[in-house]
């Protein structure tokens, strides 16, 4: 085959692969919003296809079924939040500063990605029926706990933190406080007449959550 023809063929393959990846990405983007807003039962493949200028057949080609698409959305969401944890190495920070950074980053992520909170809420309504099929979720979670365990150990050694704080309990408490600010934002804002989405309210709440967690761990 002539060199120019070979290059065209290779470029054609590269273009098709790129187009396929972009199509898959767009489907996941739209599907994330649909599943976050309407849950697994309420979301419609027809609507997702229409918003992506794709087709039901194409979606089923990539993901197999509506449930397969939902699981792909879950995998993408959990991978993204754990990548944020993994990308923030804190070995050069004092233990108290490292812990405060963990809490602050977690709070910011939840606030900036309310779709993640809604996906988690929807999956809990389904009693975790699909999360167990997300590849590698337990391994990623273990890395988060290992990081907290290391921060706590350094803090105990330096006298910053008390002994006996369970890193899993710590992670659960951080997640709960950061999660609540998004999951209950509208009902809390109405019931207590306080706009929980304003920059001032978010900054105040962020600092409160950080202080609560640090105080709980402090020696």
Automatic annotation (TrEMBL):
Ranges for domain HTH tetR-type: 21-81
Residues annotated as transmembrane: none
Keywords, in A-Z order: DNA-binding
Annotated DNA-binding residue span(s): 44-63
Region of interest: Disordered: 1-20
Keyword flag DNA-binding: yes
Keyword Nucleus in record: no
The protein, known as: TetR/AcrR family transcriptional regulator
């Amino acid at each position: 085959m002539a060199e120019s023809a070979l290059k065209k063929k290779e470029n054609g393959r590269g273009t098709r692969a790129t187009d396929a990846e972009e199509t898959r990405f767009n489907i996941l983007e739209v599907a994330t919003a649909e599943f976050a807003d309407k849950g697994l039962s309420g979301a419609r493949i027809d609507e997702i296809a229409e918003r992506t200028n794709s087709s039901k057949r194409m979606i089923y080609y990539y993901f197999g079924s509506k449930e397969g698409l939902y699981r792909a959305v879950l995998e993408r969401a959990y991978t993204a939040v754990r990548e944020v944890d993994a990308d923030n190495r804190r070995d050069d920070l004092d233990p108290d500063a490292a812990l405060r950074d963990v809490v602050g980053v977690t709070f910011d992520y939840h606030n900036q990605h309310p779709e993640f909170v809604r996906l988690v809420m929807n999956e809990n309504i389904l009693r975790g029926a699909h999360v167990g099929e997300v590849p590698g979720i337990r391994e990623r979670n273990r890395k988060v706990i290992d990081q907290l365990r290391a921060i706590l150990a350094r803090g105990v050694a330096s006298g910053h933190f008390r002994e006996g704080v369970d890193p899993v309990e710590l992670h659960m408490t951080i997640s709960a406080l950061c999660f609540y600010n998004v999951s209950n934002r509208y009902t809390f804002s109405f019931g207590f007449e306080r706009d929980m989405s304003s920059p001032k309210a978010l900054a105040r709440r962020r600092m409160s959550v950080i202080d609560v967690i640090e105080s709980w761990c402090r020696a």
